[in-house]
């Protein structure tokens, strides 16, 4: 028994959805999702093969799929997956590259297959191989005509795009081995890949022709184990190939009939963001009569209070006479309010007591100390300037200074006469 409830030879559900353009698809293998996009351009051919087109395959891993994946870094896992997909699709000659030739030695079609891993839940190679072959089967290249040395590329409006010539559909099936090959699992998940001892990947088409075999890990497989895995692969490949053909036929049928297609239409309707409200017709005949009937049958309006109702200090109610509990204080709030009132009474009593005992002290504090107003949240400080000196004292000081200066002048004259 496996963690997700599958048996040893069970394959996870495969779901295929196509985009609005040709050559774009998403393949879901359980929770593993791969996005594939095919594009093409006219390029010069290779020197050693002047009459053959070029097929370029690229797989990208990003942290969006799993936290352990690093962006822009050629990890060992990424190099290994790209090599396996190239051997599965390009080396197996699944596409007729000679049909991609436009002018021998001058211009050929370069088909580029880009795949991105959207979510990683194990068995990336199987999901990528399915997504790659589905995108290639779904892709349509522009039609081309050659007149002398002139090459004309037609738009989809001028001529219908041309599908690629595909001989067969190779699909990879992975097997995980545990305890040196004692236990065998088909389509391992991400948790099972962490603890497996070895991995065997077999690429096969529905004609039971083996395209590639890749074994990794520290295990040694016996011939009977490889034959057993190849028989299981033949069954799984036949089922997946039939599923791919049905998906392609359904998409082509919808496009011809003019129905809705694309990723947005493939979202299940059970999701909240996919709900739609159909427009309903509104009958506007006899609107006034119906409104009068509704008003007459309705209950009379409740009593309206013109003046506000004060439930508790700081709250009021205006409008219809519906009871409101906003102003009701809880027990804890009532206790706090009572304590604040008691503290305020005590401080007021102390102030009165100070005034009766020593009025002179109160006067001094009023004149010398600053007055602090604490009514608002931001406290304002008012500082009183010191009083000016009376004019009498200033006159007295001037007279004293004048008398002292006269005395000093008379003393100096007496000394000069004596000399």
Automatic annotation (TrEMBL):
Start-end of Basic and acidic residues biased regions? 352-369
Upper classification of the organism = Eukaryota, Metazoa, Chordata, Craniata, Vertebrata
Compositionally biased spans, kind Basic residues: 408-419
Q: Which residues form the Exoribonuclease phosphorolytic domain?
A: 11-142, 168-232
Region entry Disordered: which residue ranges? 327-419
> Which compartments does it reside in?
Cytoplasm; Nucleus, Nucleolus
Q: Which InterPro entries does this one have? A: ExoRNase_PH_dom1 (IPR001247), ExoRNase_PH_dom2 (IPR015847), ExoRNase_PH_dom2_sf (IPR036345), Exosome_comp_Rrp42_subfam (IPR050590), PNPase/RNase_PH_dom_sf (IPR027408), Ribosomal_Su5_D2-typ_SF (IPR020568), Rrp45 (IPR033100)
What is this protein's name? Exosome complex component RRP45
UniProt cross-references to Pfam families, sorted A to Z: RNase_PH, RNase_PH_C
């Amino acid at each position: 028994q496996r963690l997700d409830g599958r048996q040893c030879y069970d394959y996870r559900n495969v779901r295929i959805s196509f985009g609005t353009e040709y050559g774009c698809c998403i393949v879901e293998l359980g929770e593993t999702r791969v996005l594939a996009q095919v594009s093409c351009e006219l390029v010069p051919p290779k020197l050693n093969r002047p009459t053959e087109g070029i097929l370029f395959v690229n797989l990208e891993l990003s942290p969006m799929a799993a936290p352990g994946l690093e962006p822009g870094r050629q990890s060992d896992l990424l190099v290994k997956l790209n090599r396996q997909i190239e051997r599965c699709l390009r080396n197996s000659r699944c596409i007729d590259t000679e049909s991609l030739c436009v002018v021998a030695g001058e211009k050929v079609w370069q088909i580029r297959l880009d795949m991105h891993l959207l979510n990683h839940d194990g068995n990336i190679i199987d999901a990528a191989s399915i997504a790659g072959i589905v995108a290639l089967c779904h892709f349509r290249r522009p039609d081309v005509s050659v007149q002398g040395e002139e090459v004309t590329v037609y738009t989809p409006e001028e001529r219908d795009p041309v599908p690629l010539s595909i001989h067969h559909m190779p699909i990879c099936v992975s097997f995980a081995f545990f305890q040196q090959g004692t236990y065998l699992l088909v389509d391992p998940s991400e948790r099972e890949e962490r603890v497996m001892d070895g991995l065997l990947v077999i690429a096969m088409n529905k004609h039971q022709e083996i395209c590639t075999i890749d074994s990794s890990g520290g295990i040694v497989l016996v011939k009977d184990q490889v034959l057993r895995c190849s028989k299981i692969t033949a069954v799984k490949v036949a089922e997946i190939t039939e599923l791919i053909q049905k998906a392609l036929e359904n998409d082509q049928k919808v496009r011809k009939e003019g129905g809705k297609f694309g990723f947005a239409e493939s979202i299940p309707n059970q999701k909240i963001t996919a709900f739609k409200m159909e427009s309903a017709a509104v009958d506007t005949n006899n609107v006034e009569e119906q409104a009068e009937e509704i008003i007459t049958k309705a209950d009379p309006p409740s009593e309206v209070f013109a003046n506000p109702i004060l439930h508790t200090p700081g709250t009021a109610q205006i409008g219809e006479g519906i009871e409101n509990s906003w102003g009701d204080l809880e027990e804890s709030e009532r206790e706090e309010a009572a304590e604040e009132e008691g503290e305020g009474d005590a401080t007021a009593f102390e102030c009165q007591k100070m005034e009766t005992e020593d009025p002179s002290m109160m006067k001094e504090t009023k004149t010398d100390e600053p007055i602090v107003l604490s009514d608002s949240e931001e406290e304002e400080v008012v500082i009183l300037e010191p009083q000016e000196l009376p004019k009498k004292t200033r006159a007295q000081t001037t007279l004293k200074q004048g008398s002292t200066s006269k005395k000093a002048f008379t003393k100096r004259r007496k000394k000069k006469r004596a000399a």
